[in-house]
Amino acid sequence: MDVILDCIFDQVFSRLDRGCLLARYKRRQFTDYLSTVIRGSAGDDTEGGCERAVQAALRFHQTSKEENGGICLLGKYHNVLYVAATLCYDWQLQDTPTVSRLLQDIFACEHTFERLFVGAILGTKVTHLISGWKSDFRTREECVLAVQYFLEHATRANLQFECPAGSRNFVDVPMESYGRATPLRVAAQAGQADVLQILLHYGATVTPQPSSIDTCALQPLLHRMNDLCHDQPEENIAKEYINCMNLLLRELP
């Protein structure tokens, strides 16, 4: 199977147009193609087959980066990481070191994980309007499950990422396109109690350290609720915002 994967990436994928993975459906097509290779070549060891396919994608990204002086070439050379991420989730790869390396490679290029988080928080269509790309997972529900999957592996590996404000856990890495707010703050402001509960379960920080530039995650939620009261004084505050406030208050010391 390794020979087949090497041929795919070295002889086929490397010759495709640089923008061949810009569209989500193109990334999905390539993911499905690799999944077909896994089914046809890995036999009963689909876990091992998925692991090798993901590692082949990571090698392609790393090799292209090294050949360019350590700078990611973007385009297909970077988007192949999201093909790998989708493979990991689709096949529920349990090899934490491989998933961890994928997350580290994404962070090394982007310094954020917003493409993994934002679909679960704001849905799959909003990302296209804000950032010009679509989530690699089909529905918000699938995005939520994918976030849980990556949070689980990042927690198992105790991953830490160096951000401008210091070392952060995966769950607390800021979202660059959203005012460098943490996923917890964005989820609270959006009133997504289900995502908020998941983030809190995996140790998201509600009250930052005094030295941090962040503020308590309750602040944007309270601002949002205040705006709703001002704009719609006759209406009750939506239940999802109340649920978010209750979840955050339970975490305060």
Automatic annotation (TrEMBL):
In Swiss-Prot or TrEMBL terms, this protein is called Uncharacterized protein
Q: Which UniProt keywords apply?
A: ANK repeat, Ubl conjugation pathway
Question: Could you confirm whether the keyword Lipid metabolism appears in this record?
Answer: no
Keyword Membrane listed? The answer is no
Query: What organism is this sequence from?
Result: Homalodisca liturata
The regions listed as transmembrane in this protein's record are none
Sorted alphabetically, which PROSITE patterns does this protein's record hold?
ANK_REP_REGION, ANK_REPEAT
Q: Which Gene3D superfamilies match?
A: Ankyrin repeat-containing domain (1.25.40.20)
Q: Where are the ANK repeats?
A: 179-211
